[in-house]
Write a structure and sequence with these properties.
308 residues, alpha/beta, D-Maltodextrin-Binding Protein, domain 2, 5-stranded mixed sheet, 11 helices
Amino acid sequence: MNTRSNLQLAVAGLAILLALGGCGAGGSSDPPQEGSNTSNTADISEGVQPDDSALQLLPQSYKEKGELTVAMDLHYPPTTFLADDNTTPIGLNPDMARLIAKKLGLKLRFENTAFDTIIPGLDGGRYDFTATTMSPTPERLQVLDMIDYFNGGVSVAVAHGNPLNISNDDMCGRNIAVTKGSNAQLKHLPNVSEWTCTSKGKPAINGVTLPNIQEALTQLASKRIDGVFYDTPALAWADQQQPNNFTILTPQVDTRSDHVAAIALKKGSPLTPALQRAIQSVLDSPEYKKSLATWGLEAGAITEAKLN
């Protein structure tokens, strides 16, 4: 079995799935499927012009600096990952960041950082904003301004064919992976465990916290865990890239809340009004719809850049 250190990080989320294909069959990894978009390094913001109404709100300090720094954890296809060149950030979130910067007439600098370090980095002024499919929770809103840009959902992936007969309503006592610092870890899985298990006298779901989705899918393939609780778009993308490695349970998990994702920046930032206006301009643009279509996320389109 290939170890993570042997995987080519150049293909980010796809690489681990190709390795899993080799693990399951005992053979070598297959090449990426044609049309997988992992080599798509085109800049969707090419030719996009600044939005005058957003420019009017942009603080002078940012105009003088001429650049925005965006923090992302580049391990989450199809929303945020690296292309085959192991250099270019691709996915919905890099597309959004590039478009936002263009709407503000600024250059963009990417900072690849672990998800659970992004909020402290924003609060400490190391980054200007993040586009990392982050949900606006009450806890986050205490320290962040968060502006909606996408709506997704969460699902459970189990071993291919679901040999353990796991269902969304009965994961009681099972070892279900969540990623560190995610809403699934902090909120959704504990709630589902209470609603479907402990309140009915059944054993709680055992949440296994792992650093990223690649590690979670690796452990699922090696049967060290029973399932992975994660964003539906990312699981669907992974399944498309390397079919028959796992099964996604349907329907999505009912977490009794919506799953809007929001651009985030430090609470009370002078950049917030301009960023909100720029995001609204992006949502109104054909490039937004093009990006969603490129990454198979059309169902997550929204029309209002609401400040939470």
